[in-house]
Design goal:
The complex is a heterodimer of chains A (113) and B (111). With 113 residues, chain A is mostly beta strands. Chain A is built from no helices and eleven strands. Helix content of chain A is 0%, strand content 58%. In chain A, the strands form two sheets. In chain A, strands 2, 4, 5, 6, 9, 10 and 11 form a seven-stranded mixed beta sheet that branches. A four-stranded antiparallel beta sheet of chain A has the order 1-3-8-7, with no helix packed on it. In chain A, a hairpin with a 7-residue loop joins strand 9 and strand 10. Chain A starts with a strand and ends with a strand. With 111 residues, chain B is mainly beta. Chain B has no helices and eleven strands. In chain B, strands 2, 4, 5, 9, 10 and 11 form a six-stranded mixed beta sheet that branches. In chain B, strand 7 and strand 8 form a beta hairpin. Classes of the chains: A mainly beta (113), B mainly beta (111). The interface between A and B is medium-sized, with 27 and 27 residues.
């Protein structure tokens, strides 16, 4: 089984809808991250969490919120989806410390109509 | 501002034609330099971590090296299955646990 899983893998939604993307990990890592990837813009950090009680904004957090339900679960919500949130979304995990390797999930492809 | 820059943006090689990808960073305080491979529509797959200037790591046809200001990913005698986007990322002391990613190099290897 994969160490980092994301659900759903693909999602089509309409403008204004609230949606949630979920991430689970079995690596036992404390740190979890949400990124989005757009063609030509690379990976951009949305939110990150260093433990269950610690949530931090990344470089592009506007329009998004997160919930860290447990060490192994980190969810990303789009409160009111808009078309420019169409992108690939990745969850990642890492061990505690500076410069630790991040391990990525398979991604969720989101299309907002 | 801490930056990680990759070049070239795209690279086309013939099968067996060796080359190198570059990743440069404009900051001090590097804790680790990471290389990932990403296939279209999939999550980045971890390849290497380098921590010290002069360090080298190898995996099949890939070898990563690190100097004080840049890293290279050398691809020896590539095969079509090496076609992918290669990402590098830096972990810096002033960034806590976050990584700063480059834009990636899209490698295409033709038979």
């Amino acid at each position: 089984d994969a160490d980092v899983t994301q659900t759903p893998r693909n999602r089509i939604t309409k403008t204004g809808k609230r949606i949630m993307l979920e991430c689970s990990q079995t690596k036992g890592h404390d740190r979890m991250y949400w990124y989005r990837q757009d063609p030509g813009l690379g990976l951009r950090l949305i939110y990150y969490s260093f433990d269950v009680k610690d949530i931090n904004k990344g470089e592009i957090s506007d329009g998004y919120s997160v919930s860290r339900q447990a060490q192994a679960k980190f969810s990303l919500s789009l409160e009111s989806a808009i078309p420019n949130q169409t992108a690939l979304y990745f969850c990642a995990t890492s061990d505690t410390g500076i410069g630790e390797t991040q391990y990525f999930g398979p991604g969720t492809r989101l299309l907002v109509l | 501002e801490d930056q990680v820059t990759q070049s070239p943006e795209a690279l086309r090689l013939q099968e067996g034609e060796s080359s190198s990808l570059n990743c440069s960073y404009t900051v001090s305080g590097l804790r680790g330099l990471f290389w990932y491979r990403q296939d279209p529509g999939k999550g980045p797959e971890f390849l290497f971590t380098l921590y010290s200037a002069g360090e080298e790591k190898e995996k099949e046809r890939l070898k990563a090296t690190l100097t004080k200001k840049e890293s290279f990913l050398h691809i020896t005698a590539p095969k079509p299955e090496d076609s992918a986007t290669y990402l590098c990322a830096g972990g810096f002391y002033n960034q806590g646990g976050k990584l700063i990613f480059g834009q990636g190099t899209e490698l295409s290897v033709k038979p």
